[in-house]
User: What shape does this take?
Amino acid sequence: MKLIAVCSELNFIFRRQGLGLDKGILFLLDEDIPSSMFIQIIQNTIETVEVGKLRKKQREVLNYQLAVYKYDRCDKTEALQEFLDNTKFLSAVIIGDIVPEVLKDSAYILKISGTLCSDMCRLEFREEMDAMREFIRSNPEIIVRELNLLKTSKEFEQSQHCSQLFVSLLAAMRVYCAFCRNKHSEANVEVLKARIFAEIGYYVRAAEEMAEAYDAMEAVKAVALKFFTEEKDYKIAEISQVDGNMVKAVEEEKAVLYDSEFYYISEPLFRKACKSLLSVLSFIEIKRMLRDEGFLHCYQTENTNFTTKKVFINVYGAPCRGRFLKMEKEFFCSPEGLNLEEGRES
Assistant: This one.
């Protein structure tokens, strides 16, 4: 994020020197990071403007500011593309959990973790960002010199076949290390430079891998598994062991029943589990994706409801019925090989 701040601050100069990003950034937030919180964090640390609406002209954003926009699945692809392709300022779209197919190739994907957010909230981080901006604005001749030296460096020669993200972060590293040299010895800065160079390689590779093979189904699985593992306000029971409390939970649509092959989940409960994804995908899209992948079973394949009626017998011998999403148990298997019901009381 320090290097992104440099890229934003020097966007105009980077572009004039052929070092600027050729497309915008997509900040992919971990599922437990609210987008509003992340926006507040970067506004407190980096020169940032939140864009409320995508318009053809973003006159309120200056060329040294980072423009961020919170993704909405109703956004027009053309407007998003125009925002990410602009050259006046560095632009970023903030999104949670899932990368929409239309954006995979339109921006560099950078994963934002809770640990990173915590680091950015530290006073030392904010103070360093303020000091770095002051250094950059007060020493234009040093900045120009470092960028000129970069172009004859070994690292730059090795970057000729790399993405523009790698090139831009490399240029930002050069500026950041020049800033650090004011307070630290040459030997310490060389150690820092080596560490940053390795991190650049890691993030660039991760961005490329996510653009090539990011699986929305894995995001749905991760979010749903986390919900049903941690959520307490629902009941789960084997379908042949349904007592009075469980019947009530079924009626209140706060129930998960299971047999040897399937989970029978009330639709409102599963919608609640997928809540964090609904800004990116509609609930119908999620259900259709699960059906197409074979995890959701329904009899009427063209039905946009996707639910199944299920008749079962409670422990008192009385017949009961409900409407559920009938899902493969395999979908909810944890990395440790545990099913939902294992270790959980109804």
